[in-house]
Amino acid sequence: MLRERNIDFRAICTVLPQTVHDPSALLSFFDELGCREVGFNVEEIEGINVDRPHIDEAAVEEFWSGVVAHQIAGTGVQVREVQNITDYLSDRARRPKTEMARRET
Q1: Residue 44, Cα to own-chain centre: how many angstroms?
Q2: What pLDDT sits at residue 105?
Q3: Cα–Cα–Cα angle for 52, 56, 61, nearest 5°?
Q4: Alpha-carbon span 90 to 79, nearest angstrom
Q5: In this predicted model, what pLDDT tens digit does every residue of 17-48 receive, in sequence order?
Q6: φ, ψ for residue 59 (rounded to 5)?
Q7: Which end of the chain has fewer CB within 10 Å, C or N?
Q8: How far, in Å, CA of 103 to CA of 82, rounded?
Q9: Rounded CA gap, 21 and 53, in Å?
Q10: 3-class state of residue 40 by DSSP
Q11: How many CB atoms sit inside 10 A of residue 80's CB?
Q12: Would you say 78 and 60 are in contact if contact means Cβ atoms under 8 Å apart?
């Protein structure tokens, strides 16, 4: 419905143990929706969320590797976290070295 009315939209997705192993399926889902950008929050066990299933670190690393590979392949949907790090690195590359050295001290 949003796509039919040319309404740009973004989404947030919580990554669960059931979805962590197939980032391409998640990204394809958001591609098909016509979503412009998606942000991923990996389910964490903290605070009152102590009864949530644990997602091991290796699965999370594989998830993010899959997300980056999907982005490199030219997916339609942008991933918030990939875009944030790309913007950060691009900004650092544009700064004069003297400014960067000053900020790091």
Answers
A1: 16
A2: 58
A3: 125
A4: 16
A5: 999 999 999 999 999 988 999 999 987 655 56
A6: -65, -40
A7: C
A8: 23
A9: 14
A10: strand
A11: 16
A12: no
